[in-house]
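Page 42, continued from yesterday. The earlier attempt failed because a stray header line got pasted into the input along with the sequence. Redoing it now with the clean sequence only.
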Amino acid sequence: LSIACGACEAESYEFAGKCRQCSERIWTPYIFAGFTGMVVIFAMTRTVNNDAVFLSNKVTFMSIVVILGLTNIQTLSILNNLSVDWFEPLQEFLLWVNLICLDLKGLRLECYFHHSPVRLFTLRQCLAPLAIPPCILALLVKKAYKKDTVIWIELINTVGTIFNIFFISIVIAGIAPIICYSHPNNNGSSMTADPAVLCFEGDDHSSMLIVGLIALILVPIPFTVAAVCGTIAYPAILARANPRSSIFLRAFRFLFCKYTPQRYYFGIITLFRNLLAILVPVVFREYATYQLAFLSTILLAFLLVQQRMNPWRSPLANLTDGVLCVVMLQLLFLGAMNTDLSSSGDAISTLGFINVAILILVGVGFTGIGLTSRIWGAPMFHMFVCHHKADAAAQARFLKILIQTKARTKLNVFIDSDDLTELDGLFEIVRTRVRTLLVYLTRQTLSRPWCAGEVTMASRVGSETQIKVIRTPSFVPPTDAELSDLSTYLDMSSCNLTEYGLSLTDVASAFTSLMELSFLELPSGVIGRGRFHAVVAKLLAGDLDEQRERSTAPMPNEHGCVVLSSEPYNDEATAAVGILVTKIQSDVMSLHAEIVCLTDYEQDT
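This time it went through. C-alpha cells are written below.
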C-alpha cells in the first residue's frame, strides 16, 4: 500500500476536509480584514492603557467577559486536535473557530499563491509578531496628542495583553508539526493541521519543525518567563512604592489588573492550565480515552480552584468563568458519547482503576486526618482576646504582645487578625481550642454578634474555658430591657447567631453571667503604656503592688532620642505607639539611641 497525497490540485483550496475550486480572485475581503484588524489593535491599544482608577465596574466586567470568551473559543481549537468524533453543529463550528485561532486554512490563500505548506505555516507564525508594528503606530499617534504617553511602557502592556489573550493560539501554531495522527496499518503519520505533510518525513516537515521551534523561542517562551518572573517579583516591587515600581506596574498591568489584589498570581495559574490543555493531544496522541480523561481533569481542577479563589475583580465574572468551564466539560462528555471507544477497553480499565484507587486513598486519607485531629487535636490557645476591632484593634494586639512578653512560660495568644483563617470556624476554635477567653470590653464589644457568640460559646463550654474580663472606661453594660430583647441590642447585619446554634436566650444568659464576674480595669492612676503593663501584670499574676500614681521619672533631655508622639489619654493611640516601640526597639538600640513616648509623661513635662 502507498500513501495518498493529501494536497488539493492546482486552482483549488482545502476547507472542511474537502477541496474546493478557486472562484474569482477578489482582494477586497483581505483588505477589509486587514483594515478591521488595524482598527481593533488601535482600539485595544487605547483601551488597555486607560487609567484603571477611572474604569467602572461594568467596563471591568465586560473586558473580563471578552477575555474569557476569546480564551474559551481558543480552548475549542484544542478540541479540534483531539481524536474525537465531534457532532454537528459543533464540528462545523470548530472549523470556523480555527480561523479565529490563527489557522489560515479556509482563507483560500492557495488560490493566490502556489501551495506551500511551509510558506503558509511560516506566515501563521508571523501573525502574532505582526501585531507589534500597528501597536507602535497607534502609540505614536497617541503620543502626538497626549504628550505624557510613555511609548515603551504602554507597548509592553499592549503587546502583553495581545499575547496573553491569544496565548493558546500562538502555542498551538508553534507545536502544530508535532500534533500528528497515524495512518491505517501503522503506515506513517500526518500532521493533524495539514494532512498533506507526513510527520518526521521529508523536507517540508523538517522545515516546519525548525520554524515552529524558532517561533516558540521568540514569542511564547519569553512571554511565559516574563510573566512568571513578573508575578514572583510583584509583591516586593509593590512594597517599594518608588518610581521604578510604578513603571513596572504600568508595563505589566495585563498580568494583574483583572484580578483582585489577593489573587494577583492567578494569571500564572491560567497560563499553566492553558499549557497543560495544549499538551494533551501531543502527549496522548490518538488515544481519545486518555485525551478526554486528562483534559476534563485539567478543566475540572481549574474550575475547583477558580471557584474557591474567586480571583476576578467582578463577582459576576467569577460566575461566568465557572459556567463557561462547565459548558466546556459538557462538550467533552458529549464528544465521548459520540466517539466509538470500543477499542479502548484497556485504557478505560486503567483509568477506572486509577480513579477507584484515588477514591479509596482520598477516603482513607481524610478519615485518618479526621481521626488524628480528633485524638491529638489542633494546637491549643492559652488565651483568646475577644475585642471589637473598630475600637480596640491596636489595644488587643498590644495586650497580646505584653502577655507573651511578660509570661513566665510561652503562651499562645489568639487574635483574629493573626490567627483566623476561616470566619465560620471562629466559634469552633473557642469551643475546642481555647483555655481562657479574655473579653476586652469597649463601647460596642457586646453588641457585635461575633463577640457575643464568642462569649456565649465559652459560657456554654463551662469550666473547660475560663473567662476573664477587662473593662475600659467606654464600656456601658446592657440594661435589663436590652437583655430582654437582644434583637435591638445586637447588630445582626454581619452574622446571624442562630445559624450557629446560639439562640438569643443563650446570649442573654451568657451576658448576665459575664456581668457577674470580677473584672480588671486599666488603672486610672497610671498614664501611657503603663496602663497596659499594669493590667497585664494583674492578669498574669493575679495580684500586683499598687502602681505609681504618675510617671515620676523625668523625661530624657538628650540629643539622639527617638520621640514618639500620639494623642494623650487615648488608649488606642497609646497601644499603637506601644506596638511601634516593640517593632523598632532593637533597631533604635543598635544606634545607641533611646525611645521616648510622650504619652508616658505628663503633658506639662
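Notes: The chain has 24 helices and eleven strands.
Reminder to self: strip header lines before submitting.
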